[in-house]
Design a protein that fits this description.
Helix content: 25-40%
CATH class of the largest domain: Alpha Beta
Structural class: alpha+beta
Number of helices: 9
Radius of gyration: 18 Å
Number of strands: 12
Distance between the termini: 11 Å
Order of helices and strands: EEEEHEHHHEEEHHHHEEHEE
Shape: globular
């Protein structure tokens, strides 16, 4: 008998700027802001098992393994709440914890596959609610789940998965990014002083187009106190080349727009290429 296996994919999300909104519950807690849903993300393969097991693979563009980790408190906690015990394998090409929204992508992809494998009959909103609740409780993100339910350049006007999200598809050229390492997201989100600076730096206007978005994101990165020395150096070189760029939130990295961006970023480290995603989380393989 062929084993039951479902594979789902969820795109990642780069946040350009954000402001935390504290609600009375995890469902009403989150953030507002703007970002880009990207074509790279997380693939999750789920099979029923006797106990929950999680394997996390990071691969390169030639599908060679760069790193493998075992276990995920984030995913294990949600599986326990749902009373299921799957074998979960997640894969991604982008670095984890570097501002690409991969924790949200892993949650949404895994939950979408688990829902199908175990016939839980959750709709997309319920899946997103479980993922958002886990992100807020574990301090791994605030607004990525809401963004990753669809594609495009997004502006989020309300916290949580019920907040209004505007999506625009006005960035036809590729995006490029470099990462100098992770920023510990919980330490930023748990710091009242840092969150006050973040809140003060939040722009009061929404971007009309892609160039507006980069302008607002860059101002936020500089004024929030989150910009690192490496990010400052790279974005300065992008400015000199006429390339729109800003900092990946929350990660020690830079994302930049347009074909000229690759040449500017190439001297620093691995350059990741992707585009604006045209859709959100979805099942890509189903053996049921």
């Amino acid at each position: 008998m062929k084993p039951i296996t479902v594979t789902a994919f969820c795109p990642g999300h780069i946040s350009g700027y954000f402001r935390r909104i504290e609600g009375e519950t995890p469902a009403t807690t989150g953030s507002i802001g703007a970002g880009i849903v990207i074509s790279e993300g997380v693939t999750a393969k789920v099979t029923p098992a006797g106990s929950t097991t999680v394997t996390v693979h990071q691969r390169n563009g030639r599908n060679l393994s760069l790193d493998t980790a075992f276990g995920s408190p984030l995913l294990a906690d949600v599986m326990e709440q749902l009373d299921v015990t799957p074998f979960i394998t997640t894969e991604c090409l982008l670095p984890i914890g570097a501002g690409f929204g991969l924790s949200a992508a892993a949650l949404l992809a895994t939950l979408t596959a688990v829902n199908r494998v175990y016939d839980l009959e959750m709709d997309t909103e319920e899946i997103a609610q479980h993922a958002h609740k886990a992100e807020v409780e574990h301090r791994t993100g605030l607004g990525d789940v809401a963004a990753c339910q669809g594609g495009g350049r997004v502006t989020r006007y309300g916290p949580g998965v019920h907040g209004r999200v505007e999506r625009r598809f006005d960035m036809p050229e590729p995006l490029y990014a470099v990462s100098f390492g992770p920023i510990h997201t919980p330490s930023v989100l748990n710091s009242p002083e840092q969150m006050e600076r973040v809140s003060s730096a939040f722009p009061e206007m929404a971007p009309d187009n892609a160039m507006d978005f980069f302008h607002l994101a860059r101002g936020f990165a500089e004024q929030s106190g989150l910009m690192t020395r490496e990010v400052h150096e790279v974005t300065r070189l992008c400015d000199a080349a006429g390339v729109p760029s800003s900092m990946t939130m929350l990660g020690n990295g830079v994302f930049a727009y347009g074909r000229k961006a690759r040449d500017v970023l190439l001297p620093f480290c691995n350059v990741y290429e992707f585009c604006v995603a045209d859709a959100g989380v979805r099942i890509i393989e189903d053996s049921i």
